[in-house]
Amino acid sequence: MIALSTASVYPQSTADGFQLASRLGYDAVEVMVSIDPTSQDVDTVRHLSAYHEVPVCAVHAPTLLISQRVWGTEPWAKLERSAQMATEVGADVVVVHPPFRWQRAYADGFVEGIAALEASTGVAFAVENMYPWRASRREVEVYVPGWDPSESDYAHTTLDVSHASVSRSDPVEMARRLGDRLRHVHLTDGRGTAKDEHLVPGRGDMPVVELLEHLAGVGFPGHIVLEVNTRKAVDRAARELDLVESLAFTRLNFSAVP
């Protein structure tokens, strides 16, 4: 299943994300719960999914810096609400970032807490790889228990190619380390800078083709979600072309098993 993240159409709305996913031929949508009120409302998301005839495969919990106050400030309550939305809209995955180091109470027992949530909700919480924050020649570790989910005992994980670029990690090797714990992929690209670029696949220097070939070769059963940054598109038509290119690139190379 190749899906479109609603984050990929920003600054257009969540509703635009559903409309574009349906019209361009994506198989599903990942809803980024954000400051857009539409993304926070279960009934509205369910209506958009039905109206555009495109399913919701995943819900991205509001755990980014810019969404720290969406659905309140208590992190576990936000995750429980994300699982509730996922269940009600028919998604089987909640994407979640690891805690920031300053979220001490949340970070304490995070791995065990995620396992408990999965057991109580029946929803897979796929913890995403992140990266060290870099300034000049310094690196700062800001995530607990760490930015690399392959080093923690999560049952389900998300691999984000742009984040791998920032951490200067090989996403193919990370996918191999994660094995069958890899449930979800954010397909994008990067150029190894300190900036989380989320480029259209093929426009950076990450081994995106090799990653897709690896996933196809092992019969990856999860979701491949295009989470690209189209903010620099000069207009809506240019944004749409970026999303068409992203989908075509993914379909071509995911089916290209040697």
Helix and strand topology:
Blueprint: E1 2-5, H1 14-24, E2 28-32, H2 37-40, H3 42-52, E3 56-60, H4 75-89, E4 93-96, H5 104-107, H6 110-121, E5 124-128, E6 133-135, E7 138-140, E8 157-160, H7 161-166, H8 171-178, E9 182-187, H9 208-217, E10 223-226, H10 236-254
Parallel strand pairs: 1-2, 1-10, 2-3, 3-4, 4-5, 5-8, 8-9, 9-10
Antiparallel strand pairs: 6-7
Helix pairs in contact: 1-3
Can you give a write-up of this model?
The protein has 258 residues and is an alpha/beta fold. Helices cover 39% and strands 17% of the residues. It has one domain: Divalent-metal-dependent TIM barrel enzymes (TIM Barrel). It has helices at 14-24, 37-40, 42-52, 75-89, 104-107, 110-121, 161-166, 171-178, 208-217, 236-254, and strands at 2-5, 28-32, 56-60, 93-96, 124-128, 133-135, 138-140, 157-160, 182-187, 223-226. α1 packs parallel to α3. The longest helix is centred in the last third of the chain and has 19 residues, at 236-254. The chain is globular. The model has no long low-confidence stretch (mean pLDDT 95).
